[in-house]
């Protein structure tokens, strides 16, 4: 299981120190939650903060855009040279074209989907995307409880992804993931887990990430 710590749960006034202490071999991605106070109630940060972060870390950036009108917002993040940009299917008017634009920049295109949105809405996009960001909480805040119904959605999506021909599509799950439930989420088929509170509850982020990974091992036979 790869782990993408969400900096939304970190002390943003001390982010430089936190980032400098992250181990590149332990932390797979850095999850940046961009919130516009329109698509979701809160406002977080935007493209200039994301660019500054890209200059002080070599950990691949995983940008999650919780914004209205992603067609206008997505290109502002190309300069940060992230590994992944995900935008919401609920917010996009032309998701196929937008995913193609992201890919043309050499960035992995992710489609994010809210807990109440039927997963069938993603099927027309499967040839155009590299990743599905399945929300396991309503987007907007860290520290929420994992919605149990998400497990069936992960399994369902995993089976859709595995049974199709074509390139690999990664399944990333976001919200309410911690040491006690990560194994079930991994067994259901997640490739990448986003974790905010579980990674930043104390200053030892590397060890928190290690603990999450340690849970994801097959049971002895
Ligand atoms: C929710 C964000 C998540 C959140 C995860 O809107 O997209 O990435 O920060 O935080 P935890 O792990 O605390 O639920
Ligand atoms: Zn997120």
Task: Provide a brief overview of the structure.
This protein has helices spanning 15-20, 47-56, 70-73, 95-104, 150-162, 182-188, 197-200, 205-215, and strands at 2-5, 30-35, 61-66, 84-88, 108-113, 131-135, 170-174, 192-195. The protein has 221 residues and is α/β, with parallel strands linked by helices.
Can you describe what's shown?
Helix content is 29%, strand content 19%. The mean pLDDT is 96. By secondary structure, it is an alpha/beta fold. It has helices spanning 15-20, 47-56, 70-73, 95-104, 150-162, 182-188, 197-200, 205-215; strands at 2-5, 30-35, 61-66, 84-88, 108-113, 131-135, 170-174, 192-195. The protein has a single domain, classed as Aldolase class I (TIM Barrel, Alpha-Beta Barrel), CATH 3.20.20.70. Bound molecules: D-xylitol-5-phosphate and zinc ion (ZN). Zinc ion binds next to strand 2.
Give the total of beta strands. Answer: 8
- Give the structural class: alpha/beta
The description of the largest β-sheet is: 8 strands, parallel
Secondary-structure element order, as H and E?
EHEHEHEHEEHEHEHH
The amount of helix comes to: 25-40%
Would you give the CATH topology? TIM Barrel
* Through-space gap between termini: 20 Å
| Percentage of residues in strands | 15-25%
Rounded mean pLDDT is: 96
Small ligands present:
D-xylitol-5-phosphate, zinc ion
- Overall CATH architecture: Alpha-Beta Barrel
Lateral arrangement of strands in the main beta sheet: 1-8-7-6-5-4-3-2
- The low-confidence parts are none
CATH homology-level superfamily: Aldolase class I
Shape annotation: globular
Radius of gyration over C-alpha positions, nearest whole angstrom: 16 Å
